[in-house]
Each structure stands twice: as C-alpha cells, then as structure tokens.
Amino acid sequence: EFKNEAYNSFESLLEKIDDELTRRIFRIGVMERPQEIPLDVAQTNVDTSDMMGLSQSPEIKESVSGDKPLVKRVQASSKKIGRNDPCWCGSGKKWKKCHYPDPGKIS
C-alpha cells in the first residue's frame, strides 16, 4: 500500500511540474532583440598609452608583450622535508612525529 501511495504522489508531482512548465512557456512573450553594433576590437591596433600622452619604457613594453618575464623564479636552496621523511636529527622517527610541530623542540 505504501508503494502505491508513493507512486501516486510521484505521479501527481510530475503532473504539477508539467502544468507549471506549460503555463510558464505560454506566458513568455517574444522580445525583440536589440540591434548589435559590430565592433571588432581585436583588429584595432591602437596604443592607448600614446593617446593619453603616456609613454612606456622599452623594458615595460617587452614584458607586457611577453618577450621578457616580469618575475624571475627563485630556486630552493635545499630539498623540502616531507612529513613522512625520517627526521633530520637522527632519532629514527618520522619528521611529523619528531620536529614537525615545533622545529626547535626535540621529543
């Protein structure tokens, strides 16, 4: 009996959804699309900094164009210690159990 009641409730839910969807579709009005103005910004090669009276140094222009990196990467001086690596103090414990919480404390 519970299966039949649940099935009937589900069917009535589907009918309500269909009715609501149909009602909303018929209430939607057709709106006229505004006329689009074709602007092809990608093809314009205007330097706006020259237009505003600003000039850029050659280094800045190179870095903006992508020829020269802005930031140099720094290499790590030593290998990073993983949490499961043996501790550097030689205790035989994993680093996370020995010196991980407080590097100055020896357990």
List keywords for this structure.
single chain, 107 residues, mainly alpha, 39% helix, flat
Description:
The chain has 4 helices and no strands. The protein has 107 residues and is mainly α. It has a domain at 1-27.
Topology (SSEs and partners):
Blueprint: H1 2-27, H2 48-51, H3 58-65, H4 95-98
Order of helices and strands: HHHH
* Low-pLDDT residue spans: none
Number of strands: 0
Cα separation of the termini: 66 Å
Secondary-structure-based class equals mainly alpha
What does this entry show, briefly?
Helices cover 39% and strands 0% of the residues.
